Amino acid sequence: MKKILITGGAGFIGSHVVKLFLQKHPTATLVNIDKLTYAGNLENLKEIEAHPNYVFVKGDICDRKLVKSIFSSYAIDTVVHLAAESHVDRSIESPFEFAQTNIMGTLVLLNQAKESWEKDFSNKLFYHVSTDEVFGSLEETGLFSETTAYDPKSPYAASKASSDHFVKAYQNTYGLPVIVSNCSNNYGPNQFPEKLIPLVIHRILENQCIPIYGQGLNVRDWLYVEDHANAIDLILRKGKLNHTYAIGGANEWTNIDLVKLVCRTMDNALGNKKGTSEKRIEFVKDRAGHDKRYAIDSSKLANELGWKPSLQFEEGIQLTVHWYLENKTWLENVVNGSYQEYYKKQYNTTP
Ligand code: NAD
Ligand code: DAU
Which of 47, 57, 91, 223 has the least CB density, counted as fewest CB within 10 Å? Predict the structure, then answer.
């Protein structure tokens, strides 16, 4: 009977992980700690909030007392750590919050895991969900893999790289059983509309411009969020202790081609004349220090654990566009801020 602490479970990827784990680990207790920053949305978890194996704790992973009490109250034996400040543009504006949550918060969790488990590390695991951005930026060729040297370029990437290093240092120094995975760009339902794909969908719905940084030639490797959640579950159950795993979609797109694909999919779904949405594209000032290209070699995960993405990209974009169109209230609530009231309604207290 596992007792799993998931951090950041009200966010985009975390909410998919929580829902998947409740299906795949029917005898486990799942405790979700989330601070409910602007990126945390309990509406993402509406359908499972009353599940008997699920507990929600509103709190900050930097709060040592709270983290300690969660470990002892629920006898936590597994941590799946997703809580983070996740948006690169915000990290350029306010890097301190990124250092606080991503580095200090990870350290608090690691240290508590070490203290709670050090008498017997067997059947314990600290799983850190990280990003390919820790590896820096690629030119036209080459792929990131588990052996790529760290070379983070943005404050966000630097904070995630630092947290990865702390995880590995706790393994090396104290023997804490850990796994780290580094994944490429995710997309799909529940993604906050500051990220490129939901931002484009939202801008089209609002008849606003679609901003593309620089010339739109930067490349990202896109993966459907449920494929990432499935990879995390597979690695958690079958991955080798103290290993790292690179996860990617083998699906590289320049930003401009990706945005045009989303525009075409939106035009079809809305019954617009071909080319309508593309007219909204505007090339704007580039992101500072904008990484040129990310691309992942997932062959370790494929060869050792048999993982592969389940969806073709066009199919994933269709699903995503239709999800946002069918869940306009989710988007409206996020944009007008009322999603943050959901906690008050559910828990009858102020967040
Ligand atoms: P997100 O921003 O959507 O969600 C982050 C969640 O963490 C939110 O629910 C937020 O409330 C919570 N949180 C933030 N600070 C907290 C704190 N101090 N204490 C407790 N909770 C806190 O992020 P996401 O896109 O779902 O990413 C989740 C994880 O996956 C992150 O660690 C990110 O670095 C990593 N990752 C993301 C991607 C991607 O494409 N989105 C790709 C690879 C890795
Ligand atoms: O690679 C994994 C990372 O992917 C995750 O670790 C991050 O948490 C996640 O936010 C994502 O980072 P990116 O910076 O790649 O994602 P974003 O959606 O912000 O941007 C994708 C690309 O689109 C990037 O090259 C910048 C560009 N862009 C973005 C926005 C928001 C634009 O051209 N215009 C925009 O308005």
Answer: 47
In a domain, 95, yes or no: yes
Catalytic residue (one of 60, 85, 132, 226): 132
- Model pLDDT for residues 72-101, shown as the tens digit of each residue: 999 999 999 999 999 999 999 999 999 999
Is position 343 within any domain?
Answer: no
Structural domain boundaries, residue 102: 3-188+224-251+294-311
Rg (CA), the chain: 20
Is the pTM higher than 0.90?
Answer: yes
Q: How far is CA 16 from the centre of its chain?
A: 9
Count the domains in the chain.
Answer: 1
- List Cα–Cα distances, 99 to 62, 155, 195, in angstroms: 11, 8, 20
Residue 211 domain-assigned? no
156 Cβ inside 6 Å of ligand 1 = no
Would 45 be classed as within a structural domain? Answer: yes
Catalytic site residue 245? no
Closest by alpha carbon to 28, among 73, 63, 66, 76?
Answer: 76
